[in-house]
Amino acid sequence: MQLRRVALFAMGIALIGGWTTVVLATAQAQKATTDIWKDEPKETRPYWQRDLSQEQIERILEGIQKRDPAKAKALTELRKRNTDQFMTELREQGRPEIDQIVRERWEARRQERNNRFLEWLKANYPSEEQALTKLKEKDPQLYLKGFENLMNRYGYIFEAENSSPELAVVLKEDLELKKRTEQLCARYRNEKSDAKKQALGAEIEELVARRYDLIVRQKEIAYEQLLKRVEDLQKQVTSSKDDIAKFKDVQVKRENVKQRVETLVGNKVRFKWD
Q1: SS3 34
Q2: What's the pLDDT score for residue 116?
Q3: Which of 10, 88, 121, 244 has the most CB atoms at less than 10 Å from its CB?
Q4: CA-based angle 122:123:128, to the nearest 5?
């Protein structure tokens, strides 16, 4: 009996705790939906004025130390007194280091994309990926040129796969049919036999008809994607309309003004709101 009472007591605590969590989560969600200040426009800053990690800050300081030890020492002292002013000065004095960080970040993203493309190429066109790999070992310059050619040839299919796998399948088949059609057309132009020409012409017609269907499917997929964007925009329009109606409410305005003023002054001043 004693154990049963303890279990019931524990369950009660758990239920109360769970209910409290639900209430708090609901209150936070309600606050988020009625907080107009979260929608304030954000200042757009150039890349050298954006947030820097501690590791990047130390790297920039090391660079300044090498160029101008006195300036680095002054920045270190400023960092202790005024963090905001320190960051402003650091961004101005550390432009060479920040430029290098941005270049490295861009290069890392480019390399990551290239690696993903090579993996995709290996899965979809293994023979061409193998030939490219051999070039890398023999002649790096030819490898770069070959990579660029393959990216130009297949890059649009690779990119399409990220947004629509079905579209990538359609584009891949269409490319294969296009190659096959060009080959048959070359044979047709050089063929002397009328009978073989007729057979080639019939095959070309089948390929062109299939390509026509694939192009129509591409347009259908594009339409479906556009329709989805329109539906999303319609949801945003409805949500925006509801927001406007909500924020026109006198009580919501009063709560927002009160919250904002208290945030700005650090809640150190007591206002008589009523």
Answers
A1: coil
A2: 96
A3: 121
A4: 40
How would you class 97 by CB atoms within 10 Å of its CB: exposed for 0-12, middle for 13-18, buried for 19 or more? Answer: buried
pTM over 0.70: no
The answer to whether 96 and 103 have CB atoms below 8 angstroms apart is: no
Res 128: pLDDT: 94
93, amino acid identity: Q
Q: Where would I find the H helices in 52-164?
A: 54-67, 69-81, 83-93, 95-124, 126-138, 140-163
Q: How many Cα neighbours within 13 Å face the side chain of 80?
A: 5
Q: How far apart are CA 216 and CA 91, in angstroms?
A: 53
pLDDT digits (tens, 9 = 90+) for 128-166: 999 999 998 889 899 999 999 999 999 999 999 988 999
pLDDT of residue 41: 66
Half-sphere exposure of 84 (CA within 13 A, CB side): 0
220/35: higher pLDDT: 220
Mean pLDDT of the region 28-34: 57
Rg (CA), the chain: 32
**Hey, where are the domains in the chain?**
165-264
- Per DSSP, the residues of 183-234 read HHHHHHHH---HHHHHHHHHHHHHHHHHHHHHHHHHHHHHHHHHHHHHHHHH
pLDDT at 188 over 70: yes
